[in-house]
Design a protein that fits this description.
about 210 residues, alpha+beta, Helix Hairpins
Length: about 210
């Protein structure tokens, strides 16, 4: 598609500069897209590992809680669970991946107070509470990776649209317009040359 501009030398120079800039921008965006895709695939592997670790920890915690429930009466178990007070402060920061901001979650403070009767509960419950920080951190890591994947996938799609717009729309339009202006200018030059030759002939004939 030819751009709507006046076919003159000034526009031709401006379009050539614009074309060079568009090609440079396309190359940079293409490199960014390839690197983000590499990071995306690496992130998928990290998520698979984080999921596996979280599932193992979940199975361990559930098994310990089931043991506590089996070895205690229902009332004692529910009473013990109701007497666990938890306070947690979460620190949220950001990290840049290819100039894209992604969140980072960390446990800044975790305080667990146990007010239950130790003689009415299994020792497994103490082990569950002791492993709580690692379990929550594992969950946060998985959440962080999933959110990063979501943000990165959006940025990849956004960058791909920009690359395609440059590659299939803007750059071809500028190239076609440059060819059109060059053709028009050549026509003007040939027309001027023909007129000059006719003027010379008229001058010679007189």
């Amino acid at each position: 598609m030819i751009l709507q501009i006046n076919p003159n030398r000034m526009e031709l120079l401006r379009l050539r500069r614009r074309l060079a800039l568009a090609r440079r921008g396309h190359k940079l965006l293409q490199d960014k897209l390839e690197e983000m895709m590499r990071r995306f695939l690496s992130l998928l592997k990290d998520i698979d590992r984080a999921k596996e670790d979280f599932q193992k920890l979940t199975q361990s915690v559930l098994a310990d809680l089931l043991y506590c429930r089996i070895t205690s009466s229902r009332d004692n178990f529910q009473e013990a669970m109701g007497k666990i007070d938890t306070q947690m402060r979460l620190a949220v920061s950001t990290l840049r991946i290819m100039n894209v901001k992604v969140p980072v979650f960390n446990i800044e403070q975790l305080k667990i107070d146990r007010h239950y009767d130790f003689f009415k509960t299994s020792a497994q419950l103490d082990l569950v509470i002791a492993s709580a920080k690692g379990y929550i951190q594992s969950l946060l890591k998985l959440a962080q990776l999933l959110k990063t994947l979501d943000i990165l996938s959006y940025e990849i799609e956004r960058t791909r649209r920009r690359v395609n717009a440059l590659e299939y729309m803007l750059i071809p339009s500028i190239e076609e317009t440059i060819r059109y202006i060059t053709h028009k200018l050549n026509e003007f030059e040939r027309g001027n040359l023909v007129r000059l030759m006719r003027v010379k002939e008229i001058v010679r004939s007189h």
